[in-house]
Amino acid sequence: MGKIELVGVEKTFGHVGVIKGVDLQVEDGEFVVFVGPSGCGKSTLLRLIAGLEDTTGGRILIDGVDVSDTPPAKRGLSMVFQSYALYPHMSVRSNIGFGLRMAGVPKEERNRKVEAAAAVLNLTAYLDRRPGQLSGGQRQRVAIGRAIVREPKAFLFDEPLSNLDAALRVNMRLEIARLQNSLGTTAIYVTHDQIEAMTLADKIVVLNAGKIEQVGSPLELYDHPANLFVAGFIGSPKMNLVSGAAARKHGAATIGVRPEHVSTSPTIGEWEGVVSVAEHVGSDTFLYVTVPDIGDITVRAVGELALKPGAKVFLTPDISRIHRFDRDGNAVRN
Amino acid sequence: MATRQTHILGRILVAPSIVLLFLWMIVPLGMTIWFSLLRYSLLDPGSESFVGLLNYQYFLTDPAFFTALANTLVLVGAVLAITVVGGVLIALLMDQPIFGRGIVRLMVIAPFFVMPTVSALVWKNLLMHPVSGLFAWVSKLFGLTPVDWFTDYPLLAIILIVSWQWLPFATLILLTALQSFDEEQKEAAQMDGTPPLAFFFLMILPHLARAITVVILIETIFLLSVFAEILVTTGGGPGLATTNIAFLVYAQALLQYDIGGASAGGIVAVVLANIVAIFLVRLVGKNLDA
Ligand SMILES: Nc1ncnc2c1ncn2[C@@H]1O[C@H](COP(=O)(O)OP(=O)(O)OP(=O)(O)O)[C@@H](O)[C@H]1O
Ligand SMILES: [Mg+2]
């Protein structure tokens, strides 16, 4: 079991509020991803759950038990650090088994569990090496091995893939997803990477300045952002946000429309603009169009579209896919 | 040195300094060896004659030599033990966020800046003096008989003085190493539920191994030739109780005016130092690679 509940959790460093009242429910077996801009408090929130920081206010419950004052090791969680934080003078075997050793697990059982974890992670051949003799991806797997071998209630990941190169990142992402799926263990995962968030998460938590902006499944956030912040943060390229007269026409202070929901035409459309940049990435073409009185609009069009910079183009947003926001930036539902 | 080209270039560039260093070392060493083969007494100048290994024979069969050798080893070993253990403990303490940490650090470093002669005099006259010393005063406060350190425990007294001088050095090096301990690794250990003692022995000590090696190697070099503290406090006595090899060589040359014998002693000291160095490098030097 690994159900985690946060009730009004707050954290201040000195006089600076970093986490300002967070309520969150993580169900057993769920994969939850925290995203948000740098410095918004993702790591801090994760460390509060881990017990590496004390809360200033509120309660943290694991399986219904208040653990706010419980030391990290007693919470039954495992953490994978961004820098891996392996013990450099110990072999891979000792690294993975260290938590079990501290918990007083007898040697044979420990070895059996370590070897099982190593087999899952393709580390069997490296059990007697030191971390310094491994590649980045292998080190990452050792860190994950250290986390799974203790059979925790939940995994906590703090940007675990950010030190890896792009190709390895994709592999490890799949591996983490597969592992979490087969173990069925709750996971909380912090990342900057949109793709990681969208692909891994059952539930995404968007944080901004120490507060939760929205919680929901990846598609929910993509299709129904609750406010301007989430609308601008989720999705790449970013959603086009237009305010002023063009928005008032649709009965909102600001309207948002995703690049793929804008159609182009050489002759007719709602907005008339000039192409400033056209990026051809094969399957798609991204057009950056300057529209007078409205601003720059990003359009995702088919790959074969042959528009040169400087060309005139008409744009029409798909009315049914427009997001409307009121004066305070909250979504207007209709 | 990535390529053969840079390798050769590197060698050529460092050659002048190597030659200079080599001459710097080999000339005095050669002269000392030469003197050690002569009968050369300052009481009888102009009568130098070649006597072969006779000086060595006298020096090595002198009972004082074995006493001095034992004293040297005890002194070095004891001071190393005290400074390394004490240094680790003080460094651990100073790594904590305590009140007035800056001042405490400055005070801990201070003894290193005091000249050996001065610190020996301070210890002898202000601290360990059986009548007017601070320790005697404290003993009397508790109704105990003051200890006459330099008469009753002369070698221990020297060990304490030298340890006091070298503790700051060890502390400083070890503190620096301690501060480079990875914060996330500490947190990982915390998540693994490592109790404080296990954390110290399984994480901190291995992390400090390299720094401890450096402390031991550097201190040994200097501790083999402790001299000023002995001259100022006990003058090698009572009897031979505090005579180490360095002091024995001094006594040979300037108290008995025997340059030949002193040179032989000097060479013996060099050989001994090298033996100790080889042992040390074998024993702990493997911590330095990797
Ligand atoms: N120990 C600390 N003392 C004081 N302020 C801190 C401390 N740790 C974090 N902060 C502050 O708290 C805020 C949130 O930090 P946190 O590390 O949680 O951000 P983050 O969302 O993980 O950012 P990133 O994506 O860059 O890792 C930052 O403004 C940071 O300066
Ligand atoms: Mg962070």
Can you give keywords for this protein?
heterodimer, A: 334 residues, alpha+beta, Rossmann fold, OB fold (Dihydrolipoamide Acetyltransferase, E2P), 2 domains, six-stranded mixed beta sheet, five-stranded antiparallel beta sheet, 18 strands, B: 290 residues, MetI-like fold, two-stranded antiparallel sheet, 13 helices, 73% helix, binds magnesium ion, hydrolase activity (chain A), AAA+_ATPase (chain A), sugar transport (chain A)
Write a brief caption for the model:
Chain A is α+β, with helices and mostly antiparallel strands and 334 residues long. Chain A is built from nine helices and 18 strands.
Q: Can you describe this structure?
A:
Chain A: Keywords: ATP-binding, Hydrolase, Nucleotide-binding, Sugar transport, Transport. Chain A: Belongs to the ABC transporter superfamily. Chain A: Its EC number is 3.6.3.-. The complex is a heterodimer of chains A (about 325) and B (about 290). Helix content of chain A is about 25%, strand content about 30%. With about 325 residues, chain A is α+β, with helices and mostly antiparallel strands. Chain A folds into two domains: about 5-230, P-loop containing nucleotide triphosphate hydrolases (Rossmann fold, 3-Layer(aba) Sandwich); about 240-325, OB fold (Dihydrolipoamide Acetyltransferase, E2P). In chain A, a hairpin with a 3-residue loop joins β15 and β16. The model of chain A has no long low-confidence stretch (mean pLDDT about 90). Chain B contains 13 helices and two strands; from the N terminus they run αββαααααααααααα. Chain B has helices at about 5-35, 55-60, 65-95, 100-110, 115-125, 135-140, 150, 155-180, 185-190, 195-225, 230-235, 245-255, 260-285, and strands at about 40, 50. In chain B, α2 packs across α13 (about 260-285). Chain B starts with a helix and ends in a 6-residue tail after the last helix. In chain B, about 30% of the residues are buried. Classes of the chains: A alpha+beta (about 325), B mainly alpha (about 290). The interface between A and B is medium-sized, with 23 and 19 residues. Magnesium ion (MG) binds near residues 42 and 43 of chain A.
